[in-house]
Write a structure and sequence with these properties.
This protein is an alpha/beta fold. The chain is built from two helices and three strands. 21% of the residues are buried. InterPro entries: Alkaline_phosphatase_core_sf.
Length: 107
């Protein structure tokens, strides 16, 4: 829709995509930049042994940094009003899936 209104728009999606039922990729939806076809296991779903047990659980920092870099590139290209990004964070089921620096106080 955005590109139909103004073809100069640059779009991005970072993080959880998870179109497991229709298997449509971000590129097929018109995004110029993305992490590709990602789902729960990419973000370290329970039992996957993935990023949830690493220093960047649920890829929170990675996803946020990619989005910020996209915004910075858009500004550097003098396109700040023609960029659209979407960030899909992975849900943390409990506090054990967050880095100690990202946890709030415990009771």
């Amino acid at each position: 829709m955005l590109k139909a209104a103004d073809p100069r728009y640059v779009t991005a999606h970072f993080g959880k995509w998870d179109h497991r039922y229709d298997e449509i990729t971000p590129a097929e939806q018109g995004y110029d930049f993305s992490d590709g076809y990602t789902g729960n296991s990419t973000g370290g779903a329970k039992g996957s042994g993935g990023p949830a047990v690493q220093d960047d659980p649920k890829r929170i920092d990675t996803i946020t940094n990619k989005a910020l870099q996209f915004i910075d590139r858009s500004h550097a290209a003098n396109q700040p009003s023609r960029q659209r990004s979407r960030v899909g964070q992975y849900q943390a089921e409990d506090g054990s899936q967050s880095a100690p620096t990202q946890r709030g106080p415990t009771r």
